[in-house]
Amino acid sequence: VRREKLDEKISEKLLQNYDKLYRLAYSYARNEQDAMDIVQESAYKAIKYSNQVREEQYIETWIYKITINTAITYINKAKKESIGMEEYQLEYEEQYMDFDVMDSLKKLEEEDRTVLILRYFEDRKLSEIAKITGENVNTVKSRLYRALKKLKIELEPENREVIV
Amino acid sequence: MRKGSMEEMKKEYMQYTAPDELKDRIAAAVERAENEKKKKRTAGIIRNIGIAVAAAFVFTITVNTNSAVAYALEKIPVIGAITRIVTLRTYTDQGENHEAQVAIPKIQPEEGESLTEGEKQMNQQMEDYMSEIINQYERDISELGGEGYEAVDSVYSTIRDDDELLSVRIDTTFARGGAENLVKIYHLEKASGNILALKDLFQDGSDYVTVLSEAVKEEMRSEMKQDDSKTYFIDQEDMEDEFQSIKEDQTFYISEEGELVLIFDEYEVAPGYMGAVEITVPYSAVESIAAENSYLK
Protein backbone atom coordinates (compact mmCIF):
# COMPACT_ATOMS: atom_id res chain seq x y z
CA VAL A 1 0.00 0.00 0.00
CA ARG A 2 2.77 2.37 0.99
CA ARG A 3 4.51 1.70 -2.27
CA GLU A 4 1.43 2.47 -4.33
CA LYS A 5 0.98 5.71 -2.46
CA LEU A 6 4.55 6.63 -3.28
CA ASP A 7 3.89 5.92 -6.96
CA GLU A 8 0.88 8.22 -6.74
CA LYS A 9 3.03 10.99 -5.29
CA ILE A 10 5.66 10.51 -7.98
CA SER A 11 3.04 10.61 -10.68
CA GLU A 12 1.62 13.80 -9.17
CA LYS A 13 5.04 15.43 -9.18
CA LEU A 14 5.62 14.36 -12.77
CA LEU A 15 2.41 16.03 -13.88
CA GLN A 16 3.14 19.18 -11.85
CA ASN A 17 6.68 19.56 -13.12
CA TYR A 18 6.55 18.36 -16.66
CA ASP A 19 7.32 21.77 -18.12
CA LYS A 20 10.47 21.94 -16.03
CA LEU A 21 11.52 18.46 -17.08
CA TYR A 22 10.73 19.24 -20.68
CA ARG A 23 12.90 22.38 -20.66
CA LEU A 24 15.76 20.49 -19.11
CA ALA A 25 15.41 17.66 -21.62
CA TYR A 26 15.23 20.27 -24.37
CA SER A 27 18.56 21.75 -23.29
CA TYR A 28 20.08 18.36 -24.11
CA ALA A 29 18.05 17.30 -27.12
CA ARG A 30 17.38 20.72 -28.61
CA ASN A 31 14.27 19.65 -30.40
CA GLU A 32 10.70 19.13 -29.37
CA GLN A 33 10.19 15.48 -30.28
CA ASP A 34 13.34 14.19 -28.61
CA ALA A 35 12.70 16.29 -25.52
CA MET A 36 9.23 14.78 -25.20
CA ASP A 37 10.60 11.27 -25.70
CA ILE A 38 13.12 11.85 -22.94
CA VAL A 39 10.50 13.08 -20.48
CA GLN A 40 8.15 10.24 -21.32
CA GLU A 41 10.89 7.64 -20.86
CA SER A 42 11.90 9.28 -17.59
CA ALA A 43 8.33 9.19 -16.28
CA TYR A 44 8.20 5.47 -17.04
CA LYS A 45 11.47 4.79 -15.25
CA ALA A 46 10.54 6.96 -12.27
CA ILE A 47 7.50 4.80 -11.56
CA LYS A 48 8.98 1.49 -12.61
CA TYR A 49 11.96 1.79 -10.31
CA SER A 50 10.25 3.80 -7.58
CA ASN A 51 11.33 1.27 -4.95
CA GLN A 52 14.67 3.05 -5.06
CA VAL A 53 13.10 6.17 -3.54
CA ARG A 54 13.46 5.81 0.18
CA GLU A 55 11.77 8.99 1.32
CA GLU A 56 9.08 11.21 0.00
CA GLN A 57 11.21 14.33 0.27
CA TYR A 58 13.57 12.96 -2.38
CA ILE A 59 10.96 12.46 -5.08
CA GLU A 60 11.85 15.59 -7.01
CA THR A 61 15.56 14.92 -6.73
CA TRP A 62 14.89 11.43 -8.01
CA ILE A 63 12.86 12.65 -10.99
CA TYR A 64 15.50 15.16 -11.99
CA LYS A 65 18.24 12.57 -11.63
CA ILE A 66 16.44 10.14 -13.92
CA THR A 67 15.64 12.82 -16.48
CA ILE A 68 19.27 13.86 -16.69
CA ASN A 69 20.49 10.28 -17.00
CA THR A 70 17.90 9.50 -19.63
CA ALA A 71 18.80 12.65 -21.58
CA ILE A 72 22.51 11.78 -21.53
CA THR A 73 21.84 8.22 -22.69
CA TYR A 74 19.53 9.51 -25.40
CA ILE A 75 22.00 12.05 -26.69
CA ASN A 76 24.90 9.62 -26.66
CA LYS A 77 22.85 7.15 -28.63
CA ALA A 78 21.84 9.80 -31.14
CA LYS A 79 25.47 10.78 -31.55
CA LYS A 80 26.50 7.18 -32.12
CA GLU A 81 23.74 6.63 -34.64
CA SER A 82 24.47 9.69 -36.72
CA ILE A 83 27.62 9.28 -38.79
CA GLY A 84 29.58 11.95 -37.04
CA MET A 85 29.21 14.46 -34.31
CA GLU A 86 29.28 17.42 -36.70
CA GLU A 87 26.34 16.16 -38.65
CA TYR A 88 24.26 15.80 -35.55
CA GLN A 89 25.11 19.33 -34.49
CA LEU A 90 24.28 20.64 -37.93
CA GLU A 91 20.94 18.93 -37.88
CA TYR A 92 19.67 20.85 -34.94
CA GLU A 93 21.32 24.07 -35.82
CA GLU A 94 19.27 24.06 -38.97
CA GLN A 95 16.09 23.76 -36.99
CA TYR A 96 16.83 26.72 -34.79
CA MET A 97 18.35 29.53 -36.71
CA ASP A 98 17.26 32.27 -34.38
CA PHE A 99 19.79 32.50 -31.59
CA ASP A 100 18.38 32.44 -28.13
CA VAL A 101 19.04 31.12 -24.67
CA MET A 102 19.34 27.52 -25.84
CA ASP A 103 22.08 28.53 -28.25
CA SER A 104 23.95 30.33 -25.52
CA LEU A 105 23.63 27.29 -23.31
CA LYS A 106 24.99 25.08 -26.04
CA LYS A 107 28.41 26.59 -25.46
CA LEU A 108 28.59 24.95 -22.08
CA GLU A 109 29.65 21.47 -21.08
CA GLU A 110 26.62 19.29 -20.40
CA GLU A 111 27.29 19.00 -16.66
CA ASP A 112 28.00 22.72 -16.22
CA ARG A 113 24.90 23.63 -18.17
CA THR A 114 22.65 21.40 -16.11
CA VAL A 115 23.96 22.91 -12.88
CA LEU A 116 23.40 26.42 -14.21
CA ILE A 117 19.86 25.64 -15.30
CA LEU A 118 18.93 24.04 -12.01
CA ARG A 119 20.45 26.84 -9.96
CA TYR A 120 19.41 29.96 -11.83
CA PHE A 121 16.41 28.98 -13.89
CA GLU A 122 14.77 26.44 -11.63
CA ASP A 123 15.96 27.97 -8.33
CA ARG A 124 17.23 24.74 -6.85
CA LYS A 125 19.50 24.87 -3.82
CA LEU A 126 23.15 23.95 -4.25
CA SER A 127 22.85 21.05 -1.82
CA GLU A 128 19.90 19.73 -3.76
CA ILE A 129 21.74 20.02 -7.07
CA ALA A 130 24.62 18.10 -5.51
CA LYS A 131 22.19 15.29 -4.67
CA ILE A 132 20.77 15.33 -8.18
CA THR A 133 24.11 15.18 -9.97
CA GLY A 134 25.77 12.99 -7.37
CA GLU A 135 28.61 15.44 -6.90
CA ASN A 136 29.71 17.39 -3.88
CA VAL A 137 28.70 20.99 -3.31
CA ASN A 138 32.17 22.34 -4.14
CA THR A 139 32.15 20.65 -7.53
CA VAL A 140 28.71 22.06 -8.19
CA LYS A 141 29.98 25.52 -7.28
CA SER A 142 32.96 25.31 -9.58
CA ARG A 143 30.70 24.13 -12.40
CA LEU A 144 28.56 27.20 -11.82
CA TYR A 145 31.57 29.52 -11.88
CA ARG A 146 32.86 27.96 -15.05
CA ALA A 147 29.46 28.20 -16.71
CA LEU A 148 29.06 31.85 -15.77
CA LYS A 149 32.53 32.70 -16.95
CA LYS A 150 31.89 31.09 -20.27
CA LEU A 151 28.63 32.92 -20.68
CA LYS A 152 30.43 36.11 -19.62
CA ILE A 153 27.64 37.04 -17.37
CA GLU A 154 28.18 39.83 -14.96
CA LEU A 155 26.15 38.73 -12.03
CA GLU A 156 23.92 41.18 -10.38
CA PRO A 157 24.91 41.74 -6.75
CA GLU A 158 22.11 39.70 -5.21
CA ASN A 159 22.99 36.72 -7.36
CA ARG A 160 26.64 36.94 -6.54
CA GLU A 161 26.00 36.38 -2.88
CA VAL A 162 24.25 33.15 -3.56
CA ILE A 163 27.27 31.23 -4.69
CA VAL A 164 30.13 32.91 -2.88
CA MET B 1 18.67 39.40 -25.46
CA ARG B 2 20.54 41.88 -23.36
CA LYS B 3 23.90 40.35 -22.78
CA GLY B 4 24.85 39.75 -19.20
CA SER B 5 21.44 39.44 -17.69
CA MET B 6 20.55 36.23 -15.98
CA GLU B 7 16.99 37.43 -15.61
CA GLU B 8 16.64 37.81 -19.37
CA MET B 9 18.04 34.36 -19.94
CA LYS B 10 15.72 32.87 -17.41
CA LYS B 11 12.74 34.57 -18.99
CA GLU B 12 13.61 33.14 -22.36
CA TYR B 13 14.29 29.72 -20.92
CA MET B 14 10.89 29.71 -19.24
CA GLN B 15 9.22 30.36 -22.57
CA TYR B 16 10.06 26.84 -23.61
CA THR B 17 6.90 25.06 -22.60
CA ALA B 18 5.97 21.52 -23.40
CA PRO B 19 3.39 20.71 -26.06
CA ASP B 20 0.05 19.70 -24.56
CA GLU B 21 0.38 16.11 -25.69
CA LEU B 22 3.27 15.58 -23.27
CA LYS B 23 0.86 15.45 -20.35
CA ASP B 24 -1.00 12.54 -21.91
CA ARG B 25 2.23 10.82 -22.80
CA ILE B 26 3.42 11.07 -19.19
CA ALA B 27 0.11 9.67 -17.93
CA ALA B 28 0.44 6.79 -20.40
CA ALA B 29 4.03 6.10 -19.34
CA VAL B 30 3.00 6.07 -15.68
CA GLU B 31 0.19 3.66 -16.41
CA ARG B 32 2.44 1.37 -18.41
CA ALA B 33 4.98 1.23 -15.58
CA GLU B 34 2.26 0.63 -12.99
CA ASN B 35 0.70 -2.17 -15.01
CA GLU B 36 4.03 -3.88 -15.48
CA LYS B 37 4.65 -3.72 -11.78
CA LYS B 38 1.15 -4.90 -10.90
CA LYS B 39 1.51 -7.94 -13.09
CA LYS B 40 4.65 -8.93 -11.22
CA ARG B 41 3.06 -8.30 -7.87
CA THR B 42 -0.28 -10.09 -8.25
CA ALA B 43 1.06 -13.46 -7.15
CA GLY B 44 2.41 -11.92 -3.97
CA ILE B 45 -0.80 -10.08 -3.18
CA ILE B 46 -2.91 -13.19 -3.44
CA ARG B 47 -0.56 -14.91 -1.04
CA ASN B 48 -0.70 -11.98 1.37
CA ILE B 49 -4.48 -11.86 1.29
CA GLY B 50 -4.42 -15.50 2.28
CA ILE B 51 -2.26 -14.72 5.28
CA ALA B 52 -4.35 -11.69 6.22
CA VAL B 53 -7.58 -13.69 6.12
CA ALA B 54 -6.07 -16.44 8.22
CA ALA B 55 -4.70 -13.90 10.68
CA ALA B 56 -8.02 -12.05 10.92
CA PHE B 57 -9.75 -15.31 11.70
CA VAL B 58 -7.39 -16.09 14.55
CA PHE B 59 -7.69 -12.54 15.86
CA THR B 60 -11.46 -12.66 15.97
CA ILE B 61 -11.37 -15.63 18.26
CA THR B 62 -8.83 -14.17 20.66
CA VAL B 63 -10.47 -10.74 20.72
CA ASN B 64 -13.79 -12.25 21.71
CA THR B 65 -12.35 -14.32 24.47
CA ASN B 66 -9.80 -12.03 26.00
CA SER B 67 -10.23 -8.32 26.59
CA ALA B 68 -6.58 -7.84 27.55
CA VAL B 69 -5.53 -9.20 24.16
CA ALA B 70 -8.04 -6.91 22.48
CA TYR B 71 -6.39 -3.94 24.11
CA ALA B 72 -2.93 -5.13 23.06
CA LEU B 73 -4.12 -5.58 19.49
CA GLU B 74 -5.13 -1.94 19.22
CA LYS B 75 -1.51 -0.98 19.41
CA ILE B 76 -0.64 -3.06 16.37
CA PRO B 77 -0.88 -0.74 13.39
CA VAL B 78 -0.79 -3.28 10.58
CA ILE B 79 -1.54 -6.95 10.51
CA GLY B 80 1.76 -8.70 10.26
CA ALA B 81 3.84 -5.91 11.75
CA ILE B 82 4.77 -7.58 14.94
CA THR B 83 8.23 -6.30 15.71
CA ARG B 84 9.07 -2.80 16.70
CA ILE B 85 12.08 -1.17 15.09
CA VAL B 86 13.14 2.08 16.70
CA THR B 87 16.10 4.40 16.43
CA LEU B 88 18.72 3.43 18.98
CA ARG B 89 20.45 6.74 18.47
CA THR B 90 21.24 9.19 15.72
CA TYR B 91 24.75 10.27 14.99
CA THR B 92 24.87 13.79 13.64
CA ASP B 93 27.74 16.04 12.77
CA GLN B 94 27.81 19.36 10.98
CA GLY B 95 30.83 21.26 9.83
CA GLU B 96 31.61 23.67 7.07
CA ASN B 97 32.66 20.98 4.62
CA HIS B 98 31.19 17.90 6.17
CA GLU B 99 27.95 16.66 7.56
CA ALA B 100 26.58 13.40 8.86
CA GLN B 101 23.15 12.10 9.70
CA VAL B 102 23.24 8.44 10.63
CA ALA B 103 20.26 6.73 12.24
CA ILE B 104 21.07 3.49 14.03
CA PRO B 105 18.14 1.07 14.22
CA LYS B 106 17.39 -1.51 16.83
CA ILE B 107 14.71 -4.03 17.61
CA GLN B 108 12.71 -2.92 20.61
CA PRO B 109 11.19 -5.54 22.89
CA GLU B 110 7.51 -5.25 23.74
CA GLU B 111 6.84 -3.84 27.16
CA GLY B 112 7.66 -6.37 29.83
CA GLU B 113 9.35 -8.67 27.33
CA SER B 114 13.00 -9.22 26.59
CA LEU B 115 14.79 -9.77 23.31
CA THR B 116 15.58 -13.22 22.02
CA GLU B 117 19.20 -14.20 21.42
CA GLY B 118 18.74 -13.77 17.67
CA GLU B 119 17.25 -10.31 18.08
CA LYS B 120 20.11 -9.27 20.35
CA GLN B 121 22.57 -10.58 17.79
CA MET B 122 20.86 -8.66 15.00
CA ASN B 123 20.93 -5.46 17.05
CA GLN B 124 24.63 -5.97 17.64
CA GLN B 125 25.32 -6.56 13.95
CA MET B 126 23.38 -3.47 12.92
CA GLU B 127 25.19 -1.38 15.50
CA ASP B 128 28.59 -2.71 14.39
CA TYR B 129 27.79 -1.94 10.78
CA MET B 130 26.71 1.61 11.61
CA SER B 131 29.84 2.11 13.71
CA GLU B 132 31.93 1.09 10.72
CA ILE B 133 30.20 3.76 8.65
CA ILE B 134 30.67 6.42 11.31
CA ASN B 135 34.34 5.46 11.74
CA GLN B 136 34.87 5.67 8.01
CA TYR B 137 33.33 9.13 7.99
CA GLU B 138 35.42 10.34 10.92
CA ARG B 139 38.59 8.91 9.40
CA ASP B 140 37.88 10.64 6.11
CA ILE B 141 37.22 13.96 7.83
CA SER B 142 40.48 13.86 9.73
CA GLU B 143 42.36 12.84 6.59
CA LEU B 144 40.77 15.65 4.62
CA GLY B 145 41.89 18.07 7.35
CA GLY B 146 39.34 20.70 6.40
CA GLU B 147 39.97 20.35 2.66
CA GLY B 148 37.37 18.85 0.34
CA TYR B 149 33.89 17.74 1.22
CA GLU B 150 32.24 14.72 2.74
CA ALA B 151 28.71 13.96 3.78
CA VAL B 152 27.13 10.75 4.96
CA ASP B 153 23.45 10.11 5.26
CA SER B 154 22.00 6.85 6.50
CA VAL B 155 18.38 5.81 6.91
CA TYR B 156 16.75 2.50 7.74
CA SER B 157 13.40 0.99 6.90
CA THR B 158 11.55 -2.21 7.73
CA ILE B 159 11.03 -3.86 4.38
CA ARG B 160 9.38 -7.00 5.67
CA ASP B 161 7.76 -7.93 8.92
CA ASP B 162 5.36 -10.84 8.82
CA ASP B 163 5.14 -14.18 10.53
CA GLU B 164 8.11 -15.52 8.58
CA LEU B 165 10.73 -12.81 8.48
CA LEU B 166 11.79 -9.46 9.80
CA SER B 167 13.99 -7.58 7.33
CA VAL B 168 15.56 -4.22 8.07
CA ARG B 169 17.20 -2.32 5.25
CA ILE B 170 19.86 0.34 5.78
CA ASP B 171 20.57 2.78 2.97
CA THR B 172 23.70 4.87 3.25
CA THR B 173 24.92 7.59 0.92
CA PHE B 174 28.48 8.79 1.09
CA ALA B 175 29.09 12.00 -0.82
CA ARG B 176 32.79 12.61 -1.39
CA GLY B 177 33.80 13.45 -4.91
CA GLY B 178 30.93 11.43 -6.34
CA ALA B 179 28.09 10.02 -4.30
CA GLU B 180 28.16 6.39 -3.31
CA ASN B 181 25.13 4.39 -2.26
CA LEU B 182 25.51 1.43 0.08
CA VAL B 183 22.77 -1.01 0.99
CA LYS B 184 22.71 -3.52 3.81
CA ILE B 185 19.81 -5.70 4.87
CA TYR B 186 19.47 -7.75 8.04
CA HIS B 187 17.01 -10.61 8.35
CA LEU B 188 15.60 -12.36 11.35
CA GLU B 189 13.80 -15.66 10.95
CA LYS B 190 10.71 -15.56 13.12
CA ALA B 191 10.27 -19.32 13.48
CA SER B 192 13.78 -20.04 14.76
CA GLY B 193 14.52 -16.61 16.20
CA ASN B 194 17.88 -16.69 14.41
CA ILE B 195 19.51 -14.34 11.99
CA LEU B 196 18.94 -15.48 8.43
CA ALA B 197 22.08 -15.30 6.29
CA LEU B 198 22.33 -15.86 2.56
CA LYS B 199 23.92 -19.27 3.08
CA ASP B 200 20.93 -20.39 5.16
CA LEU B 201 18.75 -20.31 2.06
CA PHE B 202 20.76 -23.13 0.56
CA GLN B 203 21.55 -26.72 1.39
CA ASP B 204 24.62 -27.27 3.57
CA GLY B 205 27.76 -27.64 1.52
CA SER B 206 26.20 -26.41 -1.72
CA ASP B 207 28.29 -24.03 -3.77
CA TYR B 208 25.68 -21.30 -3.74
CA VAL B 209 28.28 -18.58 -4.39
CA THR B 210 29.14 -20.01 -7.81
CA VAL B 211 25.55 -20.85 -8.69
CA LEU B 212 24.33 -17.35 -7.79
CA SER B 213 27.27 -15.63 -9.50
CA GLU B 214 26.51 -17.42 -12.76
CA ALA B 215 22.80 -16.62 -12.47
CA VAL B 216 23.62 -12.95 -11.82
CA LYS B 217 25.87 -12.77 -14.90
CA GLU B 218 23.15 -14.36 -16.99
CA GLU B 219 20.61 -11.80 -15.75
CA MET B 220 23.00 -8.89 -16.38
CA ARG B 221 23.55 -10.01 -19.95
CA SER B 222 19.87 -10.31 -20.66
CA GLU B 223 19.05 -6.95 -19.06
CA MET B 224 21.73 -5.22 -21.09
CA LYS B 225 20.39 -6.81 -24.24
CA GLN B 226 16.85 -5.65 -23.50
CA ASP B 227 17.63 -2.17 -22.25
CA ASP B 228 20.29 -0.01 -23.82
CA SER B 229 20.42 2.31 -20.87
CA LYS B 230 21.74 -0.43 -18.59
CA THR B 231 25.41 -1.21 -18.22
CA TYR B 232 27.05 -3.81 -16.02
CA PHE B 233 30.71 -4.61 -15.60
CA ILE B 234 30.54 -7.80 -17.58
CA ASP B 235 31.96 -9.12 -20.86
CA GLN B 236 33.99 -5.94 -21.23
CA GLU B 237 37.10 -5.39 -23.27
CA ASP B 238 38.75 -3.71 -20.33
CA MET B 239 38.54 -6.38 -17.65
CA GLU B 240 39.66 -4.23 -14.76
CA ASP B 241 36.32 -3.91 -12.93
CA GLU B 242 34.84 -7.09 -14.36
CA PHE B 243 32.29 -8.71 -12.08
CA GLN B 244 33.61 -12.09 -10.97
CA SER B 245 31.62 -13.40 -8.08
CA ILE B 246 29.12 -12.45 -5.42
CA LYS B 247 30.24 -12.26 -1.81
CA GLU B 248 29.41 -15.09 0.57
CA ASP B 249 27.26 -12.64 2.52
CA GLN B 250 26.02 -10.57 -0.41
CA THR B 251 23.14 -8.33 0.65
CA PHE B 252 19.82 -9.87 -0.34
CA TYR B 253 16.11 -9.85 0.25
CA ILE B 254 13.24 -12.08 -0.74
CA SER B 255 10.65 -10.40 -2.93
CA GLU B 256 6.92 -10.67 -2.38
CA GLU B 257 6.91 -13.27 -5.13
CA GLY B 258 9.45 -15.33 -3.23
CA GLU B 259 12.31 -14.55 -5.58
CA LEU B 260 15.82 -13.98 -4.33
CA VAL B 261 17.01 -10.43 -5.01
CA LEU B 262 20.71 -9.63 -4.60
CA ILE B 263 21.83 -6.06 -4.00
CA PHE B 264 25.15 -4.63 -5.04
CA ASP B 265 26.54 -1.35 -3.79
CA GLU B 266 27.03 1.50 -6.21
CA TYR B 267 30.13 0.91 -8.40
CA GLU B 268 30.35 -2.72 -7.27
CA VAL B 269 29.03 -4.21 -10.50
CA ALA B 270 28.01 -1.23 -12.63
CA PRO B 271 28.94 2.36 -13.39
CA GLY B 272 27.81 5.03 -10.96
CA TYR B 273 24.78 6.19 -12.88
CA MET B 274 23.15 2.81 -12.25
CA GLY B 275 23.24 3.47 -8.48
CA ALA B 276 23.00 0.50 -6.14
CA VAL B 277 21.89 -2.42 -8.28
CA GLU B 278 19.28 -5.08 -7.59
CA ILE B 279 19.43 -8.34 -9.50
CA THR B 280 16.62 -10.88 -9.27
CA VAL B 281 17.69 -14.50 -9.45
CA PRO B 282 15.04 -16.73 -11.01
CA TYR B 283 13.99 -19.66 -8.83
CA SER B 284 14.82 -22.11 -11.61
CA ALA B 285 18.49 -21.19 -11.23
CA VAL B 286 18.64 -22.13 -7.55
CA GLU B 287 15.92 -24.76 -7.27
CA SER B 288 18.36 -27.67 -7.06
CA ILE B 289 20.33 -26.22 -4.15
CA ALA B 290 17.60 -24.40 -2.21
CA ALA B 291 17.24 -25.47 1.41
CA GLU B 292 14.07 -27.24 2.41
CA ASN B 293 12.48 -24.18 3.95
CA SER B 294 14.23 -21.40 2.11
CA TYR B 295 11.31 -18.97 1.60
CA LEU B 296 12.23 -19.06 -2.07
CA LYS B 297 9.86 -20.16 -4.75
Give me a quick take on this structure.
The complex is a heterodimer of chains A (164) and B (297). Helix content of chain A is 77%, strand content 0%.
Structural class of chain B: alpha+beta
With strands numbered from the N-terminus, the spatial order across the biggest sheet of chain B is 1-2-3-4-5
**Spatial gap, N to C terminus of chain B:** 64 Å
Number of strands of chain B: 8
Would you count the extended β strands of chain A for me?
0
Pattern of helices and strands of chain B: HHHEEHEEEHEEEH
Which labels suit this protein?
heterodimer, A: 164 residues, mainly alpha, 77% helix, 0% strand, B: 297 residues, alpha+beta, five-stranded mixed beta sheet, 6 helices, globular
List the helices and strands and how they pair.
The complex is a heterodimer of chains A (164) and B (297).
Chain A: H1 2-16, H2 18-29, H3 32-48, H4 59-81, H5 85-95, H6 101-106, H7 110-121, H8 126-133, H9 137-151, H10 157-163
Chain B: H1 6-14, H2 21-65, H3 67-74, E1 84-94, E2 98-108, H4 117-144, E3 150-161, E4 165-176, E5 178-189, H5 208-226, E6 252-254, E7 260-264, E8 277-281, H6 283-286
Parallel strand pairs in B: 2-3
Antiparallel strand pairs in B: 1-2, 3-4, 4-5, 6-7, 7-8
Protein model, in words:
- The complex is a heterodimer of chains A (164) and B (297).
- Chain A is mainly α.
- Chain A contains ten helices and no strands.
- In chain A, 77% of the residues lie in helices and 0% in strands.
- In chain A, helix 2 crosses helix 3 and helix 7 packs across helix 9.
- The longest helix of chain A is centred in the middle third of the chain and has 23 residues.
- The radius of gyration of chain A is 17 Å and the shape is globular.
- About 7% of the residues of chain A have low confidence.
- With 297 residues, chain B is α+β, with helices and mostly antiparallel strands.
- Chain B contains six helices and eight strands.
- A five-stranded mixed beta sheet of chain B has the order 1-2-3-4-5, covered by helices on one side.
- In chain B, a hairpin with a 3-residue loop joins strand 1 and strand 2.
- In chain B, helix 2 packs antiparallel against helix 3.
- The longest helix of chain B is centred in the N-terminal third of the chain and has 45 residues.
- Chain B is globular, with a radius of gyration of 24 Å.
